[in-house]
């Protein structure tokens, strides 16, 4: 995921979405001064955003997110996000924000930092690294017909994944599945946060002050179900994200 955003395209808007709406807003006055700000769920909802995808891509993306969230539920983790970068093709690269954007959006998977080892031989993988390999192996990304892929900018197997089919991303489409002038760069990040005792205490404490179903730290099963429901809701044709807001 370190190369989630492309080196050859400006990313004009960025959102980190969890399906939680308590404390999930970046100040709009700051966002107006910083086009590289990472916006959150309430920014997305209040701006009236939706993932502009036609029936074909919408169904494929929803199924991939369903599979990913089911797997993350199975391994008992939570607090992950869908990171969405939006490239406006009408604006192109004239804003020249790529270098700074790439610095900002390297996801933080803290549990995967290399630990010091003794000796120079190849020892066994750490439990965290082994788990990550298993997650990637089992996530089963959708393979696309190579004839539908634009190969000029990206090489290797990455081209064939659903999230990367159009110039390294997923191009917006209308209800006739015709292309629009937007490319989404998206992926699920921060996927190895276990539901520890500390997270349970955080859930309890925050739940005393706000709707415990809308705060970020909720149990893995509830987190996965809410995450998938939210992502489906914000796709074109969905019910929108407003119902996830607190009353």
UniProtKB/TrEMBL annotation:
Keyword annotations: ATP-binding, Kinase, Nucleotide-binding, Transferase
The keyword Nucleotide-binding belongs to this UniProt entry's keyword annotation: yes
InterPro entries: PInositol-4-P-4/5-kinase_C_sf, PInositol-4-P-4/5-kinase_core, PInositol-4/5-P-5/4-kinase
Location of the PIPK domain: 1-235
GO CC field: plasma membrane
SMART domains for the chain: PIPKc
GO molecular function list: 1-phosphatidylinositol-4-phosphate 5-kinase activity; ATP binding
Gene Ontology BP annotations: phosphatidylinositol phosphate biosynthetic process
Keyword Membrane: no
Protein name: PIPK domain-containing protein
Naturally occurring in which organism (per UniProt): Hermanssonia centrifuga
Lineage: Eukaryota, Fungi, Dikarya, Basidiomycota, Agaricomycotina
